[in-house]
Amino acid sequence: MSLPPGFIEELRSRLSLAQVIGRKVSWDNRKSNPGKGDYWAPCPFHQEKTASFHVDDAKGFYYCFGCHAKGDAVTFVRETENLDFIEAIRLLAGEAGMQMPERDPEAAKRAEAGRALADVMELAVQFYRLQLRAGAGQVARDYLATRDMPEAVQDRFEIGWAPDTRQALWSHLQEKSVPEAQIIEAGLCVRPEDGGQPFDRFRGRVMFPIRDARGRCIAFGGRSLDPNARAKYLNSPDTPLFDKGRTLFNIGPARAAAGKAQALIVAEGYMDVIALAKAGFDHAVAPLGTAVTEDQLRMLWRMADEPVIALDGDAAGLRAAMRLIPLALPLLTAGKSLRFCLLPEGQDPDDLLRAGGADAMQAVLATARPMVDLLWQQATEGKEFDSPERRAALDAALRQTIGTITDKSIRDHYSAEIRSRRADLFRPKSAQGGGGWRNDWRGGASGGRRGGDRRGTGFGPVQPSTKSSALAQGNAPDQEARIRESAILMACLNHPALAEKHEAALETLPFACPDLAVFRDALLSELADTPDRPQQDLEPSLAARLGYDPREKLMAVGHVRISRHLRPDATRDFVESTLLEDIAKHQATLGAHAEIRDAEAEMAGVTDEGVTWRLQQAVAARDQANRQASEVDAGDDQTDAAMKKALQDMIDRQIWVKKKR
């Protein structure tokens, strides 16, 4: 059976050799480096205890230093499954989602025709290269000089010139005895509808050969120098050699460079790729005049785990990034994703490299953001969520988008990340470090997580200017917060239906203890995955997600062990009323602490010994009130109100200002 040209190459590009071989061996984690596509294992072809079997996933080859077995994915499947060549191809094609060609006696003829077309394309490359050096190519040489493309760059990318005449290439190929049908089929010339003489497709354009992974010229891209041209850039049409949705410009050189750099840049067009390569970024590719396709995504992931999508710093660049997200989400697998970087507004890679050089480009690439950032930005930027209906619409849209992720583990992580960002966005403003106790539902790109601290909880790090104040030296609220947060979580663990019922309140409730915040997120994620789950089914899966026994962790807090509403025999109504009361108390306490921090910030730098003494007394009074309230398990609302009133009274009297005698 004859396979179409390029079929095996396409098969290899879609498969990961490490995944194919990984079904048969156990990788040596000490010697393997998955990030570089470098894997080691005991050889499956001979008995050994040491890992002498090496897989180079980037190149798609394996070699055993013991028995000297070597080959690619097809060889490995043939040897391990005892299959013939076509059977091995059929098995791998099924894994790669490729349709095996039907047995066709004409396949050999088509393969030969494909090789003939590739030969015609090479004749065109030579013709365009010669025209660039000829007198008529001066206009093209002048243009390339303005783009800072010296002859070495022109030679490297085989840049040429298509004369602005109707039949220059046609006449040249006819003189070379190339059949008319082949010239048309290769997409080099166009036959007019009226049946007249064919004419050149590319005229008055700087020409860029497009080569496949095997190095064959399969198409051209042409850049017009006429400002009135109908299309600035023109690519070859789809032909037996060229499918623009399954081709990337510069894929051959970039694939080799990406293995060395352990990175891959995806630019918008071939001019961007050339500018990047000229500056030393050889690991760059570009789609060909269309949005990135599913096939191109798989090709990118074959070369790098997290390709960086580098887009022009304009609205069109951002729209291109947003269009790529829904395509990529269903295809994500562990370790395979995308990152995005937007260049400064109004600049493309060439502009940036001219202005700041390679260092400026590297600095922008270093800011590449994960895809979840753009997903969140797309859902929230420029919108206001000042009503329950708008917030519900946001939830529905995000839930639908994340639901397209087929990998459950990745979907869970996306859900947890979006849940965290949503909680930050919907958190009351004073709990985010702002003044007052007013809700702010305005979204935006900055609505995500803020660094690695927990300022949004109301228990974040004290500002440096206030570390020596009395309030900063008072008893930290984390202990009381841990007690209350543990009680809230235990009530939810005992009654999952209550956690589902009050999901919105739990999501937006700031947690002071990072470990308990992770607990809360994991609990809500489990409930979201399987609604109405019984308690006996919830705890094992939650323990697997957290890595420890959730009940044991919460029961370590004494208050949880003795609270009546957390006993197994407590009625649901009693548990629910106490749970809501605890949530309300927690919010009130957070508000009080936030106001204290705001007051500290306002008074920083103007305090004296008098105010220090007064604030110490205030802290002592607060702690005493809290202890008394805890002992009777009541009166927290009154305590918080009294504390806030006393603090406001001190502020109103400006006790930090020395009074004149």
CATH hierarchy: architecture of the largest domain: Alpha-Beta Complex
Task: Give the number of helices.
Answer: 28
Secondary structure category: alpha+beta
Strand content: 5-15%
Mean pLDDT: 80
Catalogue the unreliable spans. 430-442, 444-477, 628-636
Shape annotation = elongated
Largest sheet: 5 strands, mixed
Distance between the first and last residues' Cα:
107 Å
Could you characterize what this model shows?
- The protein is of the alpha+beta class and 661 residues long.
- Helix 3 (73-81) packs across helix 4 (85-96), helix 11 (270-278) crosses helix 14 and helix 22 (514-529) packs across helix 23 (535-546).
- The longest helix is centred in the last third of the chain and has 32 residues, at 572-603.
- Residues 430-442, 444-477 and 628-636 have low confidence and may be disordered.
Topology:
Blueprint: H1 7-14, H2 17-22, E1 38-41, E2 53-56, E3 61-64, E4 70-71, H3 73-81, H4 85-96, H5 107-133, H6 138-146, H7 151-156, E5 160-162, H8 168-175, H9 180-185, E6 189-190, E7 199-200, E8 205-211, E9 217-224, E10 233-235, H10 251-261, E11 265-266, H11 270-278, E12 284-285, H12 294-303, E13 308-313, H13 315-328, E14 339-345, H14 349-366, E15 369-370, H15 371-380, H16 388-402, H17 408-426, H18 470-473, H19 478-494, H20 496-501, H21 503-508, H22 514-529, H23 535-546, H24 550-555, H25 558-562, H26 572-603, H27 609-632, H28 636-652
Parallel strand pairs: 11-12, 11-13, 13-14
Antiparallel strand pairs: 1-2, 2-3, 3-4, 5-8, 6-7, 8-9, 9-10, 14-15
Helix pairs in contact: 3-4, 11-14, 17-22, 19-22, 19-26, 22-23, 26-28, 27-28
